[in-house]
């Protein structure tokens, strides 16, 4: 669907004319994905990905679907036809869309109704312990491969450390941020963070760069600088922001949402160096140092 619709200029023009299009990364925000997947299941009787939700400006869903082709086929309404229909509905019969959205929200409230719980010290401690259990003490980060930066976890740990004085919370943040900056998931020449590492030690990235990752990562590095006073974190934050301003800012002043992993049809083509290319740019003593470090990372 990415190649068939989202990268198609005709579809993009139609969607941008009708909607404010927002992409949610379900790996980064499984909570949001879970909520809207429940909406899709309620409205259609099934779920799956890619998930498409159309909602009012105040986030009340009135349409849900999974795969949507560019053109109508196989009994599925195409994205071009759907977009035109939704735009017409919103302009000519908005009350109908609002009525559907209100009924969806009420049904969702009933579906998810549970005993109210207060957000107290016990809940905060539980969240900290959950992160501690999944923390990788050797390489930083949480869980195993593929490993995502998940800066929102680090921002929480910073606040937990500030609130409780728990030193381990801060050390988890520092270990993770240093490992990311020194790993292959970070672009050491152009700067910025790739979407995730395909391994557990941040070495081989998926070469896509997302705008929201840069925003959240720069926040994490900035706040860790504020917490520690260590200029390393400030420097990394400045590198990331510099990358966004130079590479992800359009001439009109807006921001591009992502930098594609594919370059001329190959993933990471412009990021990967051959041995001959490295020899051409490094002096012999630099090449020896480079190879020593590379072997140590294998």
Written account of the structure:
The chain is mainly α and 298 residues long. It has two domains: 2-111, Glutaredoxin (3-Layer(aba) Sandwich), CATH 3.40.30.10; 121-260, Glycosyltransferase (Alpha/alpha barrel). 54% of the residues lie in helices and 7% in strands. The protein contains twelve helices and eight strands. It has helices at residues 2-6, 9-18, 30-44, 79-92, 94-111, 121-134, 151-164, 167-182, 211-228, 231-247, 275-281, 284-297, and strands spanning 52-55, 61-65, 196-197, 205-206, 209-210, 258-259, 262-263, 266-267. The chain has a two-stranded antiparallel sheet.
Q: Quote the distance from N terminus to C terminus.
A: 36 Å
Mean pLDDT: 91
Number of strands: 8
User: What is the overall number of helices?
Assistant: 12
Cα radius of gyration in angstroms? 23 Å
H/E element sequence: HHHEEHHHHHEEEHHEEEHH
CATH architecture name of the largest domain: Alpha/alpha barrel
* Largest sheet, strands/sense/barrel: 2 strands, antiparallel
Morphology: globular
At the first level of CATH, the class of the largest domain is Mainly Alpha
Helix- and strand-based class?
mainly alpha
CATH topology call of the largest domain: Glycosyltransferase
Our estimate of the beta-strand percent is 5-15%
Number of domains: 2
Strand order in the sheet with the most strands: 1-2
């Amino acid at each position: 669907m990415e190649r068939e619709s989202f990268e198609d200029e005709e579809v993009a023009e139609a969607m941008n004319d009708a909607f404010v299009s927002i992409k949610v990364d379900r790996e980064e925000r499984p909570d949001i994905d879970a909520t809207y997947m429940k909406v899709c299941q309620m409205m259609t009787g099934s779920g799956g990905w890619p998930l498409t939700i159309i909602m009012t400006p105040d986030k009340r869903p009135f349409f849900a679907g999974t795969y949507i082709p560019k053109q109508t086929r196989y009994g599925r309404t195409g994205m071009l036809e759907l977009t035109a229909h939704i735009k017409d509905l919103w302009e000519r019969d908005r009350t109908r869309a609002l009525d559907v959205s209100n009924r969806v929200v009420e049904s969702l409230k009933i579906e998810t109704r549970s005993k109210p719980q207060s957000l107290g010290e016990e809940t905060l401690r539980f969240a900290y312990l959950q992160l501690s259990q999944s923390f990788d003490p050797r390489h930083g980060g949480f869980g195993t491969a593929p490993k995502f930066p998940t800066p929102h976890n680090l921002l929480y740990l910073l606040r937990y450390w500030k609130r409780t004085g728990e030193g381990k919370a801060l050390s988890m943040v520092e270990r993770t941020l240093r490992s990311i900056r020194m790993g292959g998931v970070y672009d050491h020449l152009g700067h910025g963070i790739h979407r995730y590492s395909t391994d557990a030690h941040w070495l081989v990235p998926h070469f896509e760069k997302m705008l929201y990752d840069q925003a959240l990562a720069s926040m994490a590095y900035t706040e860790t600088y504020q917490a520690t006073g260590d200029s390393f974190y400030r420097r990394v934050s400045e590198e990331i922001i510099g990358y966004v301003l130079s590479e992800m800012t359009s001439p009109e002043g807006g921001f591009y949402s992502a930098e594609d992993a594919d370059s001329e049809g190959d993933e990471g083509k412009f990021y990967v160096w051959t041995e001959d290319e490295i020899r051409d740019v490094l002096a012999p003593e630099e090449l020896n140092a480079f190879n020593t470090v590379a072997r140590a990372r294998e």
